[in-house]
C-alpha cells in the first residue's frame, strides 16, 4: 500500500515515458509493415486490372496506392519524431543528474569552506616550514660534527702510524749500533760510546718533535 502513495521521482517518470515511447515505436513499426503488405497487394491488383483492360479500376486503385504510400512515409516521420523525443528525454535526464551532482558538490564545498580557517591553515603551513628548516639545520650540524669526529680520528690514526714507523726505524738503527758495539766483558764503555748514546737520544727527540710528538 505504501508504494501506491509513494511520490514518483524524476527517474520513475522518465522510465515510464521511455516505456511508452518504446511501445509507440513498436506500434508504428507494425502499422508500417501492414501498409507495406497492403501496398504489395494493391500493386498486384492494379496489374491484374491493367491486364484485363479495366482502366477505371486501375485509376481508382492507383489513387488509393498513392495515399497508402503517403501514409507509409508518414510512419517514418512519426518514428523519427518518437526516436528524437526518446533521445531528448535521456539527455534531459542526464543533465538533471549532472545538475544534482553539481549541487551536492557545491554544498560539500560550502561546508568545507565553513570548517576551514584560512588564517589557521596559513599558520599551520608556516609552522611546518619553520620546523622543517630547523630539522634540516639540525641534521646538517650533526653531520658536520660526525664528519669532524671521524676525520679527526683518521688523522690521529695516521699520525700514530707515522710515529710507529719512525720509532721502528730508530729501533732498528739502535739495534744495529748495539750489535756493532764491543762486548761488556772485554772492555769498559768509553766516553766516546757514552757520548754516541747521548746523541742517539737527541736524534730520537728531534725526530719526534718534527712529527709533533712531545
Automatic annotation (TrEMBL):
Pfam families (alphabetical): Snf7 (PF03357)
Keywords noted in UniProt: Coiled coil
Keyword Coiled coil among record annotations: yes
Keyword presence, RNA-binding: no
GO process annotations (BP): vacuolar transport
Residue ranges of coiled coil: 21-55
InterPro entries named in the record: Snf7_fam
Protein family per UniProt: Belongs to the SNF7 family.
The protein's name: Charged multivesicular body protein 2b
Source organism phylogeny: Eukaryota, Metazoa, Chordata, Craniata, Vertebrata
